[in-house]
Amino acid sequence: MRKTVRFPVSGANSLWHIYKTVPFLKVMKNFSVIQIARYMPFLKMKNWMYRKLLKMKVGEQTSFALMVMVDIMFPEKIKVGKNSVIGYNTTILAHEYLITEYRIGEIVIGDEVMIGANSTILPGITIGDGAIVSACTLVHKDVPAGSFVGGNPMRVIYTAEEMEQRKKKEPVFIIDQ
Questions:
Q1: Do the domain assignments include residue 175?
Q2: Residue 143 has what pLDDT?
């Protein structure tokens, strides 16, 4: 179950209430920073922008690929651990606006997590340390540490134990240069 806080609205759908939830100038600043960061090829600069300008918690040596879209309304609710890779064109959402309510939830991505390209992470999700998320996955529920998940709807492909067994069976090739 995703961990979100629900805010009911009445009358028009929740997007009509957007500037009651987030100040306009904050949205404009976040939009500008995110658009620059999406195309920033320098990882240290991109992480600095996320940490200092958007107030995200980003671990050391974490890599955001090009075109990653972080939440424009509540980027401060996103936490990414150290040495993780967020794949090309991934979307990380800490909010969702629906017809009769909007929801806000923290995103926690652990250490040494790999998220494949074109994935979407919904609000209120925790992805455990060492997990792998396959490309094009809709992450709509928590991901256990060390597991390999994928698909839409997302499912566990290998548990942490099965991943360890596979690592022991598969040969490792090291190429000397």
A1: no
A2: 98
